[in-house]
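During the reporting period the student researcher (J.K.) took over the structure-prediction task from the postdoctoral fellow and processed the backlog of single-chain submissions. One of the processed entries is reproduced below for the supervisory committee.
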Amino acid sequence: MLTGKDKKKLRSIAQTKKALFQIGKDGVTYNMIQTISDSLEAHEIVKISVLKTCPVEVHEAALDIASGTRSEIVQEIGHTIILYRRSKENKLGM
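J.K. obtained the following structure tokens:
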């Protein structure tokens, strides 16, 4: 479980990063969840952009992806989701 201090640090790290994934008209798919999970293992923090054509709301998409990848939601702001999962090998220092 992330504390407020942890989330603040992760938000500052994510601010300089670009979104690695976009969720569009297909919504959240199994393959997307697997790819995001692999990316979380490599980077620990992932920024996702939800396009206006996405059939589900941003919060619902965030919950689906977080549960599918076993990650934590750091922030949802506008159409952007930031997720964090501690990596077994590539640590950010959290």
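The committee noted the following: Strands lie at 21-23, 45-50, 72-77, 80-84.
J.K. will present the remaining backlog at the next meeting.
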